[in-house]
Write a structure and sequence with these properties.
InterPro entries: YjbR-like_sf (IPR038056), YjbR/MT2646/Rv2570-like (IPR058532). Keywords: DNA-binding. One of its GO terms (molecular function) is DNA binding. The chain has about 130 residues and is an alpha+beta fold. It has one domain: Aspartate Aminotransferase, domain 1 (Alpha-Beta Complex), CATH 3.90.1150. A 6-stranded antiparallel beta sheet has the order 1-2-3-4-6-5, covered by helices on one side. A hairpin with a 2-residue loop joins strand 2 and strand 3.
Length: about 130
């Protein structure tokens, strides 16, 4: 069973054009045309989501917000970033980071579709009931 924050990540990712989900429970993987752009991961007793990020964003967030972002083991050195899914999660920021990861992965025709499809699909509230 997925946590409410992970279900919210699922909704955000599946709103992106041609996104597919594999895996179950707390470790889903989100891909576009066979290329992974985000994955849920449990680290100890905490839930996180891992995604691609450009190096500047990666450095900035790991340095300035270490309580929320971290370089995941193994893939962090290859540009992947991770965010804790907790009560401090900024869902607007995370949504943008997931879209950026998608843009780094998807073919250009799908990226062009992104603006039209995502706006209408975004939830209006975060998983703990606060306005998004």
């Amino acid at each position: 069973m997925q946590s409410a924050p992970l279900a919210h990540v699922r909704d955000l990712c599946l709103a992106l054009p041609e996104t597919t989900e594999t895996g179950r429970g707390e470790d889903p993987t989100f891909s576009v045309r066979g290329q992974t752009f985000a994955t849920g991961r449990r680290v100890g007793d905490r839930q996180s989501v891992w995604f691609k990020a450009n190096l500047d964003t990666h450095r900035e967030l790991v340095t300035t917000q270490p309580q929320q972002f971290f370089a995941p083991p193994y893939v962090g050195r290859h540009g992947w970033l991770a965010a804790w899914l907790n009560e401090d999660c900024d869902w607007v920021q995370l949504s943008e980071l997931l879209k950026d990861s998608y843009r780094m992965t998807a073919p250009k025709p799908l990226i062009d579709m992104l603006a039209d499809s995502v706006t209408s699909a975004l939830p209006s509230r975060d998983p703990v009931g606060r306005p998004a």
